[in-house]
Predict the structure of histidine kinase.
Amino acid sequence: MKKPSDEHSQAGGYGIGELLGFGSQSVRKNYYPALQDRIEELEQERNRYKWLFENALHGVFQGNLRAGFLACNPAMAKICGYDNPEDLQQRVIRLREQLFCSASEFDTLRQELLDHGSLSARETRLMRADSTPVHVAITLLRQPDLGPEVVEAFVADISERVQSRAKLVQLNADLERRVDERTAALQQANDGLHYQIEEREKAERGLVVAVKAAQDANRSKDKYLAAASHDLLQPLNAARLMISALQESQLPSEETRMVQQVHRALEGAEDLLADLLDISKLDQQAMVPDWVMTDVAALVEGLGEEFEAIAANAGLKFRIRTIPAMVKTDQRMLTRVIRNLLSNAFRYTPRGRILLALRSRSNTLRIEVWDTGVGIEESKLEEIFTEFHQLLPQGTGGRQGAGLGLAIVDRMVRVLECEMDVVSRLGRGSRFALTLPMEGNREPQESKPTINTAQIFAKGFSGAKILVIDNDLSVLESMKLLLERWSCSVITAPNSDAALAYLDTTNENPVAILADYHLDHEQLGSDAIHAIRNMLGQKIPAALITADHSVETRQMMRLQELPILNKPVKPNRLRALLSSLLASG
């Protein structure tokens, strides 16, 4: 058997031991086991790299830029659409023309690689076996020791990333398109909105013009109504006073009957005119309440005195029950409500009795009007508050009105923010109740002198000197005639100057003054009263008679402590007012 040293000598070569500087004997004895171990380690390392090369997820290849593949792994073959690496190496022999989709892009990469020695994760497209492109990210390293243009490459398939990026680009494009469309729509809507705003502004300007025109028309209407009511009430007032004076006279039966008919006709005209004016103001919300603390007991007593004569003429029993009570309300409107309820009760009570009562419940005050009249069917209780609704059909008794009294009551109750309820039994009578919040009980005051209205009607005013100021001569004549029938001594004057001139020539002062509010030449009856008081040096009891129903006038006269009697003047109200003035004097 030949020795290794002999074989080496014969072959004329060198052994591993000689290369490492050992003699052949030493190698055999000392180095062989260590070398064997090293060879085994290198083999294991080689096998590990080979496994990594063959099982890598990314493509790995070694190639010549001027030729084809020198080596490649299965992942590279899969990326390029080939069955195995051998098939890829055999079929792709020119990287420039067969692997890269763009020769110019290959040239750009090659030049950059030659200049810098490497390039990292550069995106490009490779040609698959079916001639379709595949998007990859390629990293190239030059290996000049293996050849001038030998490179090692790592290839990652980024098709999904490119597709996602393309989808994202498409989504962005769609979003931008939708934004543009939405912007265009918003711009169109904005243009439409601007147009609508312009149209609305035009409409608002037109509405302002229309409102101003309506307000001007309303003011003109109010002025017309005020002027018409004043012009209508003046002759009605004169006629009413004249008829009242005739009623106080001794006339033959036929003339008395005719006077009564004229009296009823005038009374109906007056009531209708007053109701129409009030209902018009209430519907236009032009009647504003004048909230003041009101002594309801005193108010009710005054109404009682007013209706005592009516009760006496109708042969009805009329009673009043009061309690001390103060409420914050509009005194004129509350008076109108109670007066309308009482008028309704007297109108539809042919016989029996009527009761006006004040009752307190908790912190509220109830004003109740009871009657034993014809009553109302329960099914018609809601209808009685509608305009022009007759409570009873013609021929059932009672003076027929225009059907506005309870309609006015219903509206005024709402304006006064109080409550009203009604109960009634057909043929037995009715009860109307008004509920108001009560501010507190009025402490008993020093009793005022009471006036027996029945005695006043019988005896008159015993020569009391009354000064009447009115610019309408027919009213002056009628007022003088009526007051003289009541045994008054009457002084008449058309204005303040005439009254002052007369009083300057006599030493006998009037005990009361009745003055029209609107005199000629824009003079006011209140100014005439103050001038007379100043000249005489005493506060003579006085009142104003006017067709002006405004809140402002009432507030102004209340500050001046001047009572108001509205036209047309009814004799019973005038008598009650005059009695009150004489009692205060």
